Amino acid sequence: MAEHLGVDSVLRIHFTTADLVRTRVAAAADPFWEMVFSRRRLFEQDAPLVLRPWAERMQADAAVLRPGIGALGALSPAGPYFPDFLTPSEGVDGFDAGMEALLSTPRKRLDAEIARMAVHSQVPAWVRRVADGEPEMLASLEKALRSYHDTAIKPLETQVQSRVDADRARRGRDLLDGGTDQLLAGFGPMIRWHAPVLQMPYPVDRDLYLEGRGLRLVPSFFCRWQPVALADPRLPPTLVYPIDHESHWEITGDKSLADLLGNTRATVLHSIDGGATTTELARRVATSLASVSRHTTVLREAGLIETHRRGAAVLHTLTPLGESLLSNARRARPRPSLLTA
């Protein structure tokens, strides 16, 4: 499917009781969806501030990225549809597993999905050769996508995972506090949960009936504006949604909070928003476990966080005072302007 702005149509996802039980949030971003969305971010004039350093690095690697950009552009054009085979569900197990699934797509399905794309978008001749399952073209596609992934996506894995961890912690808190109802309601305001239907703006009017299969919610670092679903209702139901970057800024411009706590300690406090273990904090802040332990001790003694042991892990959460401090800091800080990527 495709991202799209300014639409009046709606996607309605219909749940049964069995679907509510089987709904889950993926533990990591999917590299194939990230490739599709990231290519689009490269050409936006209003790219989010958080993506500016990445976009600048990609400009320096333009020659290396060009084949992948071309392949992704041809196979995921702007519009109401792009082929589902480009974002295989096996991508949840990593790039290699997803690529193996992509290359193993039956020729009949390749042909059908590319023919459907051709109804809405111009299809280059080489893409039609992919639809024919030509080994040479599939090998070229693999090479282009692998190079793009290794250059544009892989170097960001730690940063992306830290954002996913923070988002999952927030979703997990919703689930623990109010069950699946609160989990789904927590994706608002764009996504609206009116049990038993989840609905959101979409390029086309569409109803997706889960029929007991549940829904896999996949957080995305590069997705913007609205969630995107697989087009074929027979495939495992998947909804890719954008992570809220503004809720998880690193402390680079929050001078008042950094002056109060120290820059690293302020970053640790922000990173605890939604809950985090000591190991997760070390990854998010890019520091050692010993350093995190020292900072969390100070924050706990100041009454800003609470610490609880969960099995072998130590979980840190904000106290009402800590939440209030972060909330006040965010309100006091001007919203970042959108910069050209």
UniProtKB/TrEMBL annotation:
Residues 259-330 form the HTH arsR-type domain. Keywords: DNA-binding, Transcription, Transcription regulation. This is DNA-binding transcriptional ArsR family regulator. Pfam families: HTH_20. It comes from Kibdelosporangium banguiense. PANTHER family: ARSENICAL RESISTANCE OPERON REPRESSOR ARSR-RELATED, HTH-TYPE TRANSCRIPTIONAL REGULATOR KMTR. GO terms for molecular function: DNA binding. The lineage of its organism: Bacteria, Bacillati, Actinomycetota, Actinomycetes, Pseudonocardiales.
